[in-house]
Specification:
The protein starts with a helix and ends with a helix. Helix content is about 80%, strand content about 5%. It has about 350 residues and is mostly helical. The protein has one domain (about 95-355). Strands 1-2 form a two-stranded antiparallel sheet. A two-stranded antiparallel ribbon has the order 3-4.
């Protein structure tokens, strides 16, 4: 089920776990070495880029001063993100494995459909990632010939962050599906005298999966949110300055025309990935609330008392242990975050445009 995602992580040298003989285990010594090597390589690549920002061939492609500030911001966020990936993958590898094992236990009892669709979606993400990375590299080498090759490699390396986001999205999708199936099982079997006594334990495991998810991804969500906000504003200002360059400079106009689509697509891609993560989390909150409604229906129905007691215990557990994800105690990861992010971006982009046309 997770093999495509594991292969993708291993291909970019940021494994979160290991699958050996169809058994999932935390990162062992070999995988930790691969992880450290991969992050060190990406980190050194960004350091090399930072110290060669003022090389002649780089400055020849620099047509506005804002480009230098963009490079500073890129270097800071990229290196911070790589360090975060290293820490999280070393520290929370066991939490990811616990998540998968708990999901498998739930899957055995409440599964109503095959997991083939989920596996296909993982393969789709794998193939889409490869197509995007290869297409981006080909575009840069074929069209943006004015930038050095190491800058192209550094830009392609940022797709590593997308692997982490894709994994976060797919895990939350799977968790949502299992909570939906738990609700269906509870409704179907509620009048049955042999109502599965494991339902309470399964709900505990679902909440435990959610807690492990929060531990593993809350820090990356904070960095992603901050990076998307600042990167978007910085690049919008960069584009504004691009189009204030006199049109008589043909070489500069060529750079602007080929760079603008890359910048816009990169910003949109990052925002879409964060949008999906937020919406998947919001969907989880809604589904979990529906599970409480399901338990309320069972309690008020003519079901056996043992089944009603089980549902009362589920509701007590929910009240005691469930809360929305509050990423590093800074903000809640729900649809309101999306609205705040859009509001901030809209307000500040309008301000930048006002200053541009003063």
């Amino acid at each position: 089920m997770f093999w495509p995602l594991n292969v993708l992580q291993l291909a970019v040298f940021i494994p979160k776990f290991r699958i050996k003989n169809d058994v999932i285990i935390p990162n062992d010594v070999l995988y930790k070495i691969i992880l450290v090597f991969g992050v060190s390589f990406y980190f050194c690549l960004n350091i090399y880029r930072y110290f060669h920002m003022f090389d002649k061939e780089v400055q020849d492609a620099t047509i506005v001063v804002m480009q230098n500030y963009v490079s500073y911001a890129d270097a800071f966020f990229f290196m911070t993100n790589f360090i975060l990936i290293l820490i999280c993958n070393l520290k929370y590898s066991k939490n990811i494995v616990d998540f998968v094992l708990d999901i498998q236990d739930v899957h055995r009892f409440v599964n109503f459909c095959s997991s083939k669709n989920y596996v296909r979606s993982n393969w789709f993400c794998f193939i889409l990632f490869l197509i995007m990375a290869i297409a981006f590299y080909i575009y840069c080498r074929a069209v943006m010939t004015f930038i050095p090759h190491y800058l192209t490699v550094t830009a392609v390396a940022t797709f590593v962050f997308d692997v982490d986001k894709i994994f976060a999205i797919q895990l939350m999708r799977l968790l949502n599906e299992k909570v939906i199936q738990w609700n269906r099982r509870a409704l179907i079997d509620c009048r049955n005298e042999t109502f599965d006594k494991n339902m309470f334990g399964l709900y505990q495991k679902l909440l435990r999966c959610y807690e492990n998810y929060k531990k593993c991804f809350q820090a990356s969500i904070v960095i992603t949110t901050l990076a998307n906000l600042l990167h978007t504003l910085i690049y919008v200002q960069d584009l504004i300055e691009y189009y204030q360059v006199p049109q008589e400079l043909d070489s500069d106009q060529h750079i602007i025309l080929v760079a603008t689509p890359v910048i816009c697509m990169w910003l949109v891609k990052n925002l879409i990935l964060q949008l999906i993560i937020i919406l998947q989390c919001q969907k989880f909150y809604s589904i979990v609330e529906k599970s409480q409604d399901t338990c309320a229906l069972v309690i008020k129905s003519k079901c056996p008392e043992a089944n009603k007691k089980l549902c009362k215990n589920v509701r007590r557990l929910h009240r005691a242990s469930f809360s929305k994800m509050r990423a590093c105690q800074l903000f809640y990861v729900d649809v309101c975050l999306l609205l705040y992010l859009i509001e901030l971006l809209a307000n500040h982009i309008i301000i930048l445009l006002q200053f541009a046309f003063v």
